[in-house]
# Entry
Amino acid sequence: GENVEQHPSTLSVQEGDSAVIKCTYSDSASNYFPWYKQELGKGPQLIIDIRSNVGEKKDQRIAVTLNKTAKHFSLHITETQPEDSAVYFCAARPSGNEKLTFGTGTRLTIIP
Amino acid sequence: DTAVSQTPKYLVTQMGNDKSIKCEQNLGHDTMYWYKQDSKKFLKIMFSYNNKELIINETVPNRFSPKSPDKAHLNLHINSLELGDSAVYFCASSQPGANVLTFGAGSRLTVL
# Structure
């Protein structure tokens, strides 16, 4: 089955700086890669996703990049703000499979 | 209107007891899930139902029994609770092929 590794497990960034979270996956059949944000006391919420036919996707201050050859994908947050503080999860799903496998999570803290 | 609602939000019980967590979604989705999040924040899928039929059943002890009376509801019953069952349990829903999971706010189970 799919295995997703995520680094770092914790990340502290000065407000206004950029944050990068990286994930690797094992199943070459995976073709869908979402990122979820989990705020304290809440369920995870989708913030951005990318499919395997695209190398990069951007939505305002958030971008995701995908390297299918290396089986890497990354989340980039620019101009970080205090409300970006949360736990972020990457995930991967193989084609034709309903099962989404999550990474181990990154706790991002934005220092004012 | 809450899209995916879970009850109860908190549950404290003794070892050996039986308890249930209920989930309802008003999004019209066909697929519902149960995820377990442990103290290290790892998110692991337990079960998935599509239109009341079980489609994913991970290696979960038989003490856990999901029940889907209709496609808008997926309940989780746990028998003979153990200390290791302490976790936050998340219900989620999606449309098949639509990729996006919508999570509930979670139910924190503490077994003493």
